[in-house]
């Protein structure tokens, strides 16, 4: 596995791989890799000649009071995991490399990015779409893999890719969960044992709602009320949103349409912000 830290070197290598007719699969990450990330790398390795994993804690997608400074970073461990999992290139640029002092251009998607995470973290998706557009131009992927865990992010990136005519396929891989159901996340390491135990209510409530839908429930208000009630039983959990939306547009659903509707949840577990979702 090759480690690259500069944009110019990455672009030159990607250009020469593309000229040789190789397909490139990109897996963008912020590092602190867990099995969720590794599942994306494995999927990319099945489909592409060359797998590029980017590790970059993107300052542009963190709000001023968010956890950019304390976000976990361990590039050496990440590199070992990438290599073991089948990555060929690790692209780990510095902030200065991606956003030099003179930097002033941003890419914004203005519809899918508005509700939910967009309402609660107003500059978040602007940072995400900007860095992903840059990574597309730097690594020249044939396709890029994203996790269903961040369902709105995947929907925003699909929309941006279509709107900007990027010739990049977007692959969305299923959410990998810990035993007990908690969706894997780099932020789970902030949780104490008690907080972790209460966090199980999130996936539990989603599974419960999915069961209700399997039994014929289609009323959005009924499902949201049930999940709100289940989460409300936990002392440390405060709900940011519980909503049922169209999985492509993120617009509120009027009733559940199996295969199209998505239940999305964001909560605070004390000071740790967690999200999860389930396709019905
Ligand atoms: P992050 O490092 O948190 O920015 O995530 C990088 C990529 O990994 C994104 O496409 C995420 O959606 C994906 N991802 C994060 N957690 C999981 C998970 N538990 N299962 C599947 N994909 C995930």
Write up what this structure looks like:
The protein is built from 9 helices and 9 strands. It is an alpha/beta fold and 280 residues long. It has 2 domains: 172 residues, 3-Layer(aba) Sandwich (Rossmann fold); 94 residues, Pantoate-beta-alanine ligase, C-terminal domain (Pantoate--beta-alanine Ligase, Chain: A,domain 2, 2-Layer Sandwich), CATH 3.30.1300.10. A 6-stranded parallel sheet has the order 1-4-3-2-5-6, with helices on both faces. The chain has a 3-stranded antiparallel sheet with strand order 7-8-9, covered by helices on one side. β5, α7 and β6 form a beta-alpha-beta unit. It binds adenosine monophosphate.
Bound compounds, each kind once, are: adenosine monophosphate
As for the number of domains, it is: 2
Beta-strand content:
15-25%
CATH fold topology of the largest domain: Rossmann fold
Strand tally: 9
Estimated radius of gyration: 19 Å
Contiguous helical run count: 9
Q: Please bin the fraction of helical residues.
A: 25-40%
Instruction: Give unreliable regions as ranges.
Output: none
Strand order of the largest sheet: 1-4-3-2-5-6
Reading off the top of the CATH hierarchy, the class of the largest domain is best stated as Alpha Beta
Instruction: Quickly give the structural class.
Output: alpha/beta
How many strands, what sense, and barrel or not for the largest sheet? 6 strands, parallel
Q: Give the CATH H-level superfamily of the largest domain.
A: HUPs
Separation, N- and C-terminal Cα atoms: 39 Å
Shape: globular
